[in-house]
Amino acid sequence: MMHLRVIKATTKSLLFIVLGGLVFGWTGCKGGFGKRSNNNQYIVYQVDSLHQLANDFKASHLDSMLLVADEAQKISAEHDYSEGVIQSLIQKGIVYFYKGNEDTSLLLLQQAENMLSVLPSNQQNNKLTAQKNGLKGSIYHNKAYYDSAAVYMYEAIQVFEKRGDSLQLARVSANLATNYILTEDYINALLFTEKAAFIFNKKQDLEGLTAVYERKGSIFAHQEIYDSALVYFQKSQEFAEKINHPFFIANGLHNIGSVYLKQGKNEIGINYLEQTIDLYRQLNYNLGLAMSLSNLGEIYFNQGNYANALHYYLEANRLANKYDFLEIKVDAHRNISELYQLKKEFETALFHLSQSQAAQDTLAQLNKANAIKELEKRYVTESKNREILQKELELEQVNSNRLLIILIAIIIAAILIFIIKNRMVENDRLREKNNWIKQQQKELKHRTENHLEQLSSLFEIYGLTQNKNNEVLKEAQSRVEAINLLYYSLEKGDVKQVDIQVFIQKLVSNILKIYGQTNGQIQTQINIPKLEMDVNTVQAIGQIINEALNNSLQYAFDESIQSPIIRVKLQSISSENRFQLLISDNGKGFDKRKETENSIGLMLIEAFVKSINGKLVTKTGIEGTQHIIIFGF
Predict the structure, then answer these.
(1) Are 211 and 239 in contact (CB under 8 A)?
(2) 577: left (phi over 0), alpha (psi -120 to 50) or beta
(3) What's the rounded Cα separation, in Å, for the pair 81 and 72?
(4) How confident is residue 80, by pLDDT bands cut at 50, 70 and 90?
(5) Which domains does the chain have, with CATH numbers?
(6) 316: closest CA among 303, 302, 334?
């Protein structure tokens, strides 16, 4: 008679529970999948909603989950939504894995892998690949290809670590812990269990914590530390009931009952196993049901209750024959044969013994074939490990280069910040100095303007107090006014450019005012274009106009001139920025008797014309006097 294999069977069954969390741990209806450009958004939403619905069925009704996944695959295929088809294939693969049909599950995953191989590498497709690898690793784990299972699980872990998907990382880590439990590497099993527990605690994921506590219990159960195992199994059962997860509840009952049986508490253990059988029937989990029936039959056999033992063995054998569970078939037929030998029904006993031997031979052939496949897988695994190591080395080199680039960038940034900061300080200093200079210039202009105004006022008061028409004072006052007007113009505008039109109009008006010509006795015709000139040129033009108008106002007009007119005209005479200034009057021309008096004014005009590199032509006669100045050479 065989020993009770309850704990080992329970450990394997853990994968059927947590794997659902691994494969379906996304929220499809919230846009979890990348959408192809030729898919209607409604179709994508519809497919993702079906996937979410299938995910909801995973813990309660596998057949419903399969139907919904089929419908999602059909719609996805009709609308060329490749990611939707792949997700459906993975969901169907998990259904068949739950049902114990691992070969069908592998076939579906191969189809998903073929489709992924022709899709572009992106964030979503990498996620699908990781989920596919997580499921594939669990299948190889269940087939006892532990090395291959570890490779696929590690590949899934690497993707989820890069994506920062902590929950998916925790679920794969939990499955990898189960892999280590069955290879009796309890240190690594506990390490990955604690890693998963840390994430599930942080995320407050009760489903994940349920699986973690179940794994901790299994680690202690495999080492026959049953008191500690029972504590963790009971804790897992509490979480399973909180989240109302039927598979976890069934597994929890199975685990607790198995520990009680190991402790010799048979009645309590049998009660838990019977509840487990009822739940597995409701969940249509045939592999777990067959193992539980076989284990319960073995318990009754050991107690000498052969009738109950035969009942449970026959039920387990029926499921084993229907679903081709070879290990259970071998044990069930052998146990039934022993029971019939005790009943002295040797013919029936011989039949069951031969059936057990035939199943054993088939299992041996499969194990032999699997051993060859395992060698092939190990070769592939070693190749993959070398590739992974090479990729890790390349990634380490890339990271080192990135670190070096970052350090260089930080140094350059620090230097630039230092330079910019110093430049800003220097600019602030120069700006302050420049503002101070401007302020001093402005103050100087104000003071100069005030002095000029005071000087002009003194000339005017002196002329009034002397009660005579002092022409020398008027000339002096007009010259001061010309300079004062220039300062006034500079204060109102650019320090380098002056509006010549405004300046000349104001200058002529001031000169007429000084000579008392404000009642229109002498007409003025001013024709100046709207343009700006530099300060030096404007100053020279102002003094030229001032001297010419002084001469005209003092000497050109007497009672014989009926309509005295003074004209000032400025015009451009070429495309090379040359100008012609005309200043004329219709007076009596130069008077030979006063030529001496006029000579100072003419000399000043000639001097100012030379200062702007100009040419002067003066015409005089009975029709008046005309000064023609050409400048801009």
Answers:
(1) no
(2) left
(3) 10
(4) confident
(5) 6-284 (1.25.40.10), 494-631 (3.30.565.10)
(6) 334
